[in-house]
Structures are given as C-alpha cells and as structure tokens.
Design a protein that fits this description.
Chain B: Keywords: Membrane, Transmembrane, Transmembrane helix. Chain B: InterPro entries: DUF3311 (IPR021741). Chain B: This is DUF3311 domain-containing protein. Chain A: Pfam families: SSF (PF00474). The complex is a heterodimer of chains A (about 500) and B (about 70). Chain A is mainly alpha-helical. Chain A has one domain: Sodium/glucose cotransporter. Chain A has helices at about 5-20, 30-35, 40-50, 55-70, 75-100, 105-115, 115-150, 155-175, 175-205, 210-220, 235-245, 250-255, 265-275, 280-295, 305-310, 315-350, 355-380, 385-400, 400-405, 415-435, 440-445, 450, 455-475, 480-490. In chain A, helix 1 runs antiparallel to helix 9 (about 175-205). The longest helix of chain A has about 40 residues, at about 315-350. Chain A is globular, with a radius of gyration of 23 Å. Chain B has about 70 residues and is mainly α. Chain B has a domain at about 10-15 and about 30-55. Chain B contains three helices and no strands. The longest helix of chain B has 23 residues, at about 35-55. The relative contact order of chain B is 0.18. The chains are: A mainly alpha (about 500), B mainly alpha (about 70). Chains A and B meet through helix 5, helix 10, helix 11 and helix 13 of A and helix 1 and helix 3 of B.
Chain lengths: ~500, ~70
C-alpha cells in the first residue's frame, strides 16, 4: 500500500463526507435536490459553472492537446470567455423564466416556452444521448488517472467502480448540494496543483517559458501556431463560435443556472469566470513541457501525469492524482443528476402523466444508480458507437441553441413544429457527419481550403436553421396568435 | 440599446477577426508565443470589460433584492 494510494483514498472519503454532509438535514423534494431550492449565492454558482470547465477532459485532454497538437489548443481559452460574455444577458433571462414557471430541467424550459411536452421530450433525448458518453469519458479518465498514479497497483476497473459508488451515494443523498460542496474541494485542489505544475515544470526543465517555447519552436517549426491546412485559422474561428454557442446548452450546465438565488449572481460571475479560466493556461504549460521531455507518447492525454511521475516523488504524484479524480467526480455528479432528472421528468412523466411531483422526485433519485450502471457498462464495453457519440456530444447539444435563443425574443417567430424539426434535422446531420467521418472538405471537395477547414458542425447548424425557419413559416398560421397567447396563460403559474 | 453594451463586442472581434493577424510565434511577450499572448490578453480584457459593463449597467444598481 503506497502513500499515493492513501492520499487518493483520503480524498475520496473527504469527498464522500462533504457530499453527504451537504444535505444538512434538508427535506429533499425535487426542487431542493436538483436545483438547490434556488438558493445558491455567487460562490456556489461560480463553482458549479467553473466545474464544467475543469473536467478530466481539461485536465488530461487540455495537456494532451498541448502535447499532441500545439497551437490549436488555444481555442479552449477563447470559447469559454465568449460564452461568459453571452451569459451576462442570457442566464438572467433563463433564471427569471425558470423561477417564474418552477422549472427543474433544461427540457422544462422548452416545454414551457413552446408549450410542447413533445419538444421537451426531444430535447431530453438529445441531452441524455450527449450526457451519457460525457459521463463515460469522465469515468475513463478517472480510471486511467488512478492506475497511473498508483503505479499500476489499482486497475482502472477497480478505480471506476469505487468512483462510481462514491458519486452515486452522495448524488442520491444530497443532489446538487453534494456537487457544490465537493466542487469547493475540487477547485481549491486543482488551482494549487495545476498552477504549481504549470510554473514548476517549464522552469525546471527549460529555465522559463520563453526558453521552453523557443526550444519547441526550433525542434518543431509551426507547432505553436495554427497550421495552413486542417486545424487552421478558419477551423479555429468556426470551432470557437460553435463551442461558445453550445457551452450552456449542456443540460447540466443549463439547469445549474436555476440554482442561483438571484439573477445578479450571473452578472457578477461573468466578470470573474474569464479570468478564472486562465488556470487552463497552466495545464497547457504542463503539456508543452512534456513535448521535448517525453516525445513519442502513444497517448498524449497521459503527458501531464507521465511527466509528473518522471519529476516528482510518489507522494506528490498521489496529490496530483487526487486532484485529477475530483475533476471526474464533480462533473460526473452533475451529469448523473441532470440525466436522472430529465429521464424522470421529461421522458417518464410524459408517458405517465398521472405521476405526481413527489413520485417524479423519487424516481429521479432511484434512476441515479441506473444511469451510473449504464455509464459503467459503456466504460468497460465501449464499442464504436460510444466513441462516435463522444465525438458528437458537443455538436449534438449545440443543435438546441437556435430554438433556445429565438425563444428569448419578445416576438418569437419559431413555432414548436419549427423548433422540433430544426433540432431533429441538426441532430440527424451531426449523426450522419460523425458516422461517416465527414468533413466540410469531404462533403464539398470543390470549395477553397479555408472553407474546407470549417468545423463540420457549421453544416449541421445551417441545416438546423433552414429547417427551423422553413417549418416555422409554414406552420406559423396553424397556431394562431390567440391560441399561442392562450398557451402562455396556460403555462404561467 | 445602451452604448456601453457595444464594449462586449470587442473580445469577439479580437479573438475571431483578430486571429489571422496574430497567428505567429514572434515576438515573444511575457515569455509567450505571440498568438498565445494575444489570446491571454483578450481573456483578461474580457474580464475588465465585463467589470465595466457591470458598473455601468443600471440594472445592477440598488440592493441585492430582486
């Protein structure tokens, strides 16, 4: 039993303790469990929202991209900042509407705005299809972190099971309160560890940032900038735009905004979150430091951990591992909770309308272990399908954006039919593109290179918008204005 | 439309329209390749701009109560 293992076990236990204690004797109805009784102040909402950036994807994947792809990695810093700017106006509107109509999930928002449980069902299905692979990704990350930092003495399988059990227990007991309190631990750990690594490694191996970057630039010319083809300037711009739009369309991010106690929370956070995002810079530095120190890694996602193992004593590697595990647990808990809420409220209840709110709350909590087991299953048996879904997840949720943003307008021309058809067309396009592994270049080979490099998600977005507009204009007369007004009265509480 | 809101467009312009012009390694600024320095600066400026908007936006005047 090594010291690193003890550290990991200790942090798991602390998370479990914090997660369970977070309940603080509250009676857990659905509103308390899934949106914290709408009583979270700036700090907790901040940590929930920041929790979505610091996932295992950023911890392992951010350094992995810096190690393997270089300059294109920088897009990760841009889309968050732009999404935060939009959040200043977007989230207060979402929050007000959610509070007024007592919404619990992202799908609820569409059910009410478009007066259509069927549209809510579609949004729910798209959300769950995108979230489960994302959860799988967190679990896979957790497995490889533990097996790395335990120097192989704990298999990924055991690590995944332990992690899932911990997170399932505290999500069932405390819901979003558990996520918020473990996020406090996670963010303080990750901040200290990542900033330390991002400063120490470049200075230790290269004597400073400029030395490191010029050594890389000399060894691999062009590595630190955007290439002329492929992940080029036009790829960068289109990807930043698409990911910024999709940023808050993840069901767990969207619904975590409901937890705020007032709308000023979001406007305050929009000031701090961009700066806070710069922590990612230090993750990149660690990945860049690995480029010349451990070249030819087959899996770049392990670059940060491998370089750390090469540099530090096992007890410190254990701390890094513990921080890494927290980056899987906190987003994992949010994903679990959001998926369970959506399945209970926006899928199950649609088919069994007589289900009472108390029953929905109960079902949602019972679904937590079910969703967790499904995720574990895919973690161990990921066939080609799950890989496809992983790649497509972000593009899938981005397809919800047009119907969402139009619904915030005072006079929304989009009908429920238009919204439904647009999302469906967008999602089908994303699926086709991902399954056939298409790019804009392969779909339209005659176009100039800059257009070919555009993120292929653009194609799905255009299809979505065209269908949404066409169907809305065609069906605009069907639902007369008075009927729509009636619908609005019907949903207002 | 209040004019101060237009400030929020600056980071979009700097990051999206600006990027083809800053896609280079030299000159290094603060030890960073120029493209990375530019992006980091944009992110910092974003925070500053959102702070200014928060201060100027009349909606944030008054107490915490809604």
């Amino acid at each position: 039993m090594s010291f690193a293992l003890l550290e990991i076990a200790a942090f798991l236990l602390i998370s479990l303790y914090l997660g369970i204690r977070a309940r603080q004797g509250r009676k857990m109805n659905l509103e308390q469990w899934t949106v914290g009784g709408r009583g979270f102040g700036s700090l907790l909402v901040f940590l929930l929202m920041a929790g979505e950036i610091y996932t295992t994807f950023t911890f392992l994947g951010g350094s992995g991209w810096a190690y393997g792809k270089g300059g294109p990695t920088f897009y990760i810093l841009c889309y968050g900042a732009l999404a935060y700017i939009m959040s200043y106006w977007m989230l207060p509107a979402v929050w007000r509407y959610a509070k007024k109509n007592n919404l619990m999930s992202q799908s609820d928002f569409f059910v009410h705005k478009y007066n259509s449980p069927v549209l809510g069902l579609l949004v729910a299905v798209v959300g769950v299809i995108a979230m489960v692979p994302y959860l799988v990704l967190q679990l896979k990350g957790l497995g490889s972190i533990v097996s790395e930092v335990s120097y192989g003495s704990i298999s990924p399988t055991v690590a995944v099971w332990i992690g899932v059990i911990v997170v399932t227990i505290y999500v069932m007991i405390s819901g979003i309160h558990g996520s918020a309190w473990t996020a406090v631990l996670k963010d303080s750990m990750i901040l200290l560890i990542v900033v330390f690594l991002g400063i120490y490694l470049p200075f230790h191996y290269y004597g400073g940032y400029q030395n490191m970057f010029s050594a890389i630039a000399q060894a691999k010319p062009g590595f630190l900038t955007l290439p002329a083809k492929g992940l080029s300037v036009s790829w960068f711009i289109s990807t930043v735009v698409l990911t910024a739009l999709g940023f808050y369309m993840w069901p767990h991010s969207f619904a975590s905004s409901y937890a705020a106690k007032n709308e000023r929370v979001f406007r305050k956070n929009a000031i701090v979150l961009p700066l806070y995002q710069l922590v990612l810079l230090f993750v990149f530095f660690a990945g860049f430091a690995a480029v010349l120190q451990i070249p030819k890694l087959a899996n770049g996602d392990l670059s940060l951990l491998r370089l750390a193992k090469m540099t530090f004593a096992p007890w410190f590697v254990g701390l890094i591992g513990a921080a890494g595990i927290l980056t899987a647990l906190v987003p994992g808990s949010m994903l679990l909770m959001a998926s369970s809420t959506i399945v209970a409220k926006n899928i199950y209840q649609v088919f069994a309308p007589s289900t009472s709110e108390e029953q929905v709350a109960k079902i949602a909590r019972l679904l937590v272990p079910v969703v967790a087991l499904v995720a574990v299953y895919f973690t161990f048996n990921s066939g080609a399908a799950i890989v496809v879904l992983l790649l497509a997840g972000y593009s899938l949720v981005t397809q919800i954006f047009p119907a969402f943003i139009f619904s915030l307008l005072k006079n929304n021309f989009v009908t429920k039919f238009g919204a439904f058809a647009g999302i469906l067309a967008g999602v089908l396009t994303v699926t086709y593109i991902t399954v056939t592994n298409s790019s804009v270049g392969s779909l339209f080979p005659a176009l100039p290179q800059a257009v070919k490099d555009l993120n292929v998600g653009i194609v799905a977005m255009i299809v979505n918008l065209v269908v949404l507009a066409a169907v809305s204009l065609l069906t605009g007369g069907l639902a007369s204005k008075s009927e729509r007004d009636l619908g609005r009265f019907g949903t207002a509480k | 439309m209040k004019m101060f809101r237009l400030l929020a467009l600056l980071p979009f312009l700097a990051m999206l329209v600006g990027i083809p012009f800053v896609n280079r390694v030299t000159p290094y600024v603060l030890g960073l390749p120029f493209i990375l320095f530019w992006i980091v600066m944009c992110v910092v400026v974003t925070s500053v701009i959102m702070g200014i908007i928060y201060k100027l936006d009349p909606i944030n005047k008054g107490g915490e109560a809604e």
